[in-house]
Amino acid sequence: MVAIALWSVTIGMLRSVSERAGPVGGAALIYGAGALCLLALFRPPPARLFAPRYLLVGGGLFVLYELLLSLSVGLAVSREQALVVGLINYLWPLLTVLCAVLLNGERLGLLALPGFALSLYGVACVFAGSMTPALAPLVEAVRDAPLSPAMALAGALCWALYCALTRRWAGGRNGVTWFFCATAAVLLAMAVATGALTALPDAVTLLQAVLAGAALSTGYALWNVAMLHGRVTLITGAAYATPVLSSAFAAVWLGASTSPAFWWGALLVSVGALLCWQAGRRR
Description:
Transmembrane segments: 20-42, 54-77, 83-103, 110-135, 147-165, 177-200, 206-225, 232-255, 261-280
Oligomer: single chain
Protein name: Inner membrane protein yddG
Keywords: Membrane, Transmembrane, Transmembrane helix
Radius of gyration: 18 Å
Structural class: mainly alpha
Organism: Methyloversatilis universalis (strain ATCC BAA-1314 / DSM 25237 / JCM 13912 / CCUG 52030 / FAM5)
InterPro entries: EmrE-like
Largest sheet: none
Number of strands: 0
Distance between the termini: 26 Å
């Protein structure tokens, strides 16, 4: 449960640090701090013990997901859009079920269909700013600032592919520490290449980056422990409250204005994700 709480602060703090150090520089600081924290908490198995396709394909998908998530939040045109981007990220349970059907040949549970519908309708409510969204304002909202939402959706698909593919390839081992470090290395290289970190950030920026990195990486470490030793069904089910928790923290932390339609959409995304999870359990 602590992992869920830690992950819930990710979107708000990613946006906060990105506003102070830039999208690339902020993400590099956060993931750099997180990689150090994760190495201290969770020593990874030697890389030679992993299947090559797990490291290359699984690791590539993990890195790409983290890049798309962090940069989509940082590049959002406003704090309010950053909250919307965070919700789009939580379409990954829907996409994971689809990937499991298409790639692994698993059967589609009956609850998946209402789960799909609720999640998509929830995102539509958030985009249109209405509990009964019409097509015209929805299209206009996407057309006005398409980059961050598109990146968030692509990231959700990457995470869904990661979940669907690596389950068969991991061999019971967890390469998250290696993947997280690879993400930090890519972001730091991007920051150096683009000049995003030409000067030492101020103390407040560094503190926020360290806290955000520690929360994100510790969440990964604790989640792994929970999956190995905890009540997996209870913990996984509780994780689908994250869209609402994450939105609530981000709205308060960033001081972003939200409407009733936003919270209605966030609730629908959470319920839809929970139904998709239930459909996955019953296949």
